[in-house]
Amino acid sequence: MASASARTLVVDPFCFRQFDDPDYAGTRIAMSKAEFEERANAHFEANPGCLVDGYAPFCKHIFMDNCVDATLPYVELTPDLEPLVRSAYEARNDKELPVLQRWVPAVSVEPRTAKYLDLILYSREQIRMENAGMGEEDISDAPWGIISVKAQDVPHEVPMNPITMMRNALGVEQGGSGVAIEREKYDASVEFWEKHIVLR
């Protein structure tokens, strides 16, 4: 096992809220950050070629078994749930541009444990660029930072929310990545999220 200082994958501070914030609306990780890093790096070392291309060259995915018993953070949007939909303008931190979000209260459905975790990775160069754009430092030298973890039932990428694509296109100064919208991917995202809703 690689030492902490020599790990290929590290949990990025942007992802800390999934471990530390009891009110975080997405996938919660019921494990210490250090242990999760060990599990992620062990999976990476045991599965050469497990990096899957993401929405941009600096983004990769690792799909691994759900080792933290995380529940699915979204469900199919059924007629019974439509009256329960809530919305608000929100930012993920105080430096981001608030965008419109929608969800249904998680207590409205029976929680279900997901089969997989999608580890979303950004390259060190991209993390440093985005941190600089937000006036933040980066103290890690690990090649890849785990910027988000998503619980899901499929071993491939679930479409990014359309509003996240829009924020990314606005650039690092607004909390995005600076990647322009690709219409085909955007349309696929709309098709998925018209039929599904986030739980929180």
Care to describe what's here?
The chain is of the alpha+beta class and 200 residues long. It has five helices and nine strands. The strands form two sheets. The protein has a five-stranded mixed β-sheet. A four-stranded mixed β-sheet has the order 4-9-6-5. A hairpin with an 8-residue loop joins strand 5 and strand 6.
Whole-number average pLDDT?
93
Total of DSSP H or I helical runs spanning 4+ residues = 5
Q: Could you tell me the number of beta strands?
A: 9
> In angstroms, what separates the terminal alpha carbons?
36 Å
Beta-strand proportion? 15-25%
Using only CA atoms, what is the Rg? 17 Å
**Which class do the helix and strand fractions yield?**
alpha+beta
Biggest pleated-sheet summary: 5 strands, mixed
- Sum up the overall morphology in one term: globular
The multimeric state of the shown protein is single chain
H and E string: EHHEEEEEEHEHHE
Helix content: 10-25%
Low-confidence stretches: none
Strand order of the largest sheet: 1-8-7-3-2
Highlighted features:
single chain; 200 residues; alpha+beta; four-stranded mixed β-sheet; 24% helix; globular
Would you summarize the structure shown here?
The chain is of the alpha+beta class. It contains five helices and nine strands; from the N terminus they run E-H-H-E-E-E-E-E-E-H-E-H-H-E. The radius of gyration is 17 Å and the shape is globular.
